[in-house]
Amino acid sequence: MRRQNKIHLALSLSLICMLSCTVRKANVEPKIADYSNEGYQLVWADEFEQDGMPNSKNWTYEKGFVRNEELQWYQPENAFCKNGLLVIEAKKEQKPNPLYTQGSKDWRRNRKNIEYTSACVITKGLQSWQYGRFEMRGKIDVNNGLWPAFWTLGVAGRWPANGEIDIMEYYKGKILSNIASLGKDGKPKWFSETKAVKELGGNAWAEKFHVWRMDWDSENISLFVDDVLYVKVTLTQLQNDNKEGLNPFKQKHYILLDLALGGLNGGDLNGTKFPNRMEVDYVRVYQKEN
């Protein structure tokens, strides 16, 4: 009798698992959108279906302390695929900083210890595109000090002359859509729009998956969140303000996905719990035939 009850229990648990998995699939794995009526065809995608490390044909990694005086040390092991999602996990863990140099004024070298780790996965040297519809479905945490992003950089030139497009960026309570090229003073010139997460629904909004999208052609760059247009900039406005006068958005760009912490813009972590995650359901690129 006890064995029979165990069998019934096992069957019930299996059924619950199957149902929950089905619900999760329905929630986080929608069908690939058909944009053919707008002339777009899918040319590349990563659906993150295979558990383990991200596909090495699509993604490589930034490593160490990279930019913006951020707190995290980037390492590949903080990015992994599980249950059809790419997970970028930020951890609070202490380890010696291999770059540490006593007395150094360089922010990368004057930290004796690494206090946080995270990951930044990039398609640099593997996948890049000029023009198209770039789309990411993901879920981000909006607690203090977190700085997740889905963005692109031009393959040629030094920043900001190579161009930057922040399709999704969050910090200090705001969703940001940004485009940058080189300004007259040698600094980036930004075209930006922001939206307070409170206006979108706060934590309830952040608990759901959302779609961030860029439409980029030879005339304009338009950035959307859940099909709502946030910013549209003409490419003529994005010309670099230097003697070369090149346009960094008339070249191929590669994709970056990361979860940064603190730094120049991220703010104070203020009790944010770790480990913390950014979850990505898919990244897709569509292009028109011509």
Automatic annotation (TrEMBL):
**Gene Ontology molecular function terms on file:** hydrolase activity, hydrolyzing O-glycosyl compounds
Under the heading PANTHER family, the entry gives: GLYCOSIDE HYDROLASE FAMILY 16 PROTEIN, GLYCOSYL HYDROLASE-RELATED
The domain of life is Bacteria
What UniProt keywords are attached to this protein's entry?
Hydrolase, Signal
Tell me which positions the record assigns to the signal sequence. Answer: 1-26
Annotated Pfam families? Glyco_hydro_16
Family affiliation: Belongs to the glycosyl hydrolase 16 family.
Any one Gene Ontology BP term: carbohydrate metabolic process
- InterPro entries assigned: Beta-glucanase-like, ConA-like_dom_sf, Glycosyl_Hydrlase_16
This chain's protein is named Glycoside hydrolase family 16 protein
Q: Which residues form the GH16 domain?
A: 33-290
* The keyword Signal is annotated on this UniProt entry: yes
